[in-house]
Write a structure and sequence with these properties.
Blueprint (H helix, E strand, L loop, with lengths): L1 H37 L26 H23 L4 H18 L1 H14 L9 H9 L1 H11 L6
């Protein structure tokens, strides 16, 4: 009896886990449709105006969070060295040498991260709060589900 009960519980858990994301995806789809109707973004002029989808799958998987943080630090060092050069000309040669070293390091070891960094800056620079941003909001809303699905599976650990 215990083994039958355990089997039923196991099957229930498997079914719940398999339908959990599908149910959430359907819920999100319904919410998006509601918003599209409410904001009158269902016309043909909104089809194909993807805002974020062009960025999906563009980041190289060898680009890590740590390397992005390091690139950010290197960028700040470039700003610091430039600021120091502007404040004092007596160590200009040393600071220029440091800037050259950082630039060379970035060019040789951080090219993929620089491309991702540029994409992040482009995404963050999107104007989404102005009154004239209906096109961006409509396009973003139209491709929200696909972005959400990619984002929800991206953090999953792949089992080998």
């Amino acid at each position: 009896m215990d083994s039958l009960f355990n089997l039923v519980i196991m099957c229930g858990l498997i079914i719940a886990s398999l339908t959990g994301t599908m149910g959430r995806s359907l819920h999100i789809e319904n919410e998006v449709k509601t918003l599209l109707k409410h904001y009158k973004l269902t016309g043909p002029e909104w089809v194909g105006k993807a805002v974020f989808s062009p960025y999906l799958g563009k980041a190289d998987n060898t680009c890590t969070c740590e390397k992005l943080v390091l690139l950010s630090m290197l960028n700040v060092y470039m700003d610091i060295f430039s600021d120091m050069m502007n404040k004092s000309k007596e160590k200009k040669a040393v600071l220029e040498e440091l800037k050259k070293s950082v630039a060379l390091l970035k060019a040789n070891k951080y090219t993929k991260e620089q491309a991702v960094w540029q994409q992040l800056k482009e995404i963050e620079s999107l104007e989404v709060r102005k009154k004239s941003t209906c096109t961006i909001q409509g396009g973003a809303l139209n491709n929200f589900r696909s972005v959400y699905e990619v984002a929800s599976t991206a953090g999953q650990v792949k089992k080998v």
